[in-house]
Amino acid sequence: MGNKRPIRVLLAKPGLDGHDLGVKMVAMALKDAGMEVIYLGMRQTPNAIVNAAVQEDADIIGLSNLSASLIPMGARVMELLKEKKLDIPVIYGGTILKEDRGKLLGLGIRETFSPGTLMKDIIRNVRTLVPDEMLQA
Q: What is the pTM for the complete model shown?
């Protein structure tokens, strides 16, 4: 196997959610696991998230939202990716009800993580969703 670059993870909080402790903890865990993390911060629009993912050459997008807007925000991010013909996996973290998890997965979100998820499980899922072939230097 040749040289492999680190996984580039773009993290963002779409919408007006004002709490970002969880996403910052995930960012630290992913960095500690050897990934490159770009955190856009809070109050991001779906357009800003998708544009940043392109500019940063992100391998995966992680969204975090604790408000009721998680479904429309996730839907819009997925629409924009589809419009731009981008196949970047998207994961979603936050307080996600069981019925909302199914809706998010139905939109094409690849995985969801609720409070209490172990960091090692998030790291393993990110590594699974980004194939090694994408990471050859």
A: 0.94
